[in-house]
Amino acid sequence: MTVSVATVAATGDRRKTLEAMRDKLAEAFDEAPPAVVAQIAGRLSAVLAELEALPGERKSSLDELASRRSDRLSEAKVAKPADGQARQRRA
To answer: Which of 9, 12, 34, 73 could form a disulfide with 78 if both were Cys (CB 3.0 to 4.6 A apart)?
Structure first.
């Protein structure tokens, strides 16, 4: 589900607003008629450049998910497996 750019912009968070714009433009790019693909590509490129130029920590979606999972595990007081020792599933 794509979040409304207007909803995100109302929070005042520039990074999240640009990320919402990026996602919306990427969807539009995939569905656009050939006549407007170049225009969308140009705007998408500009939004990506603005995101890269923002100061501060940049987290990928995977980093964010890993962080949330780690927080949930620590709140539940579940021991983290040692590096390289993933739990094995039973067959």
So the answer is: 73
CA dihedral (42, 46, 47, 48) in degrees, to 10, reads 100
pLDDT tens string 52-79:
999 876 666 777 778 778 878 877 776 6
How confident is the model over 79-89, as a mean pLDDT? 57
Q: In residues, how long is the chain? A: 91
* Rounded percentage of the chain residues whose pLDDT exceeds 70: 77
31 vs 71: CA distance, rounded Å: 37
**Cα distance between residue 50 and residue 46, in whole Å:** 6
Q: Which residues are within 8 A (CB) of 28 and not within 5 positions of it... i.e. 6 or more apart?
A: 40
- Taken in order 15, 18, 24, 28, the sign of the CA dihedral is negative
How many other CB atoms are found less than 10 A from the CB of residue 32?
15
Sole residue written with tokens 């990427």: 26
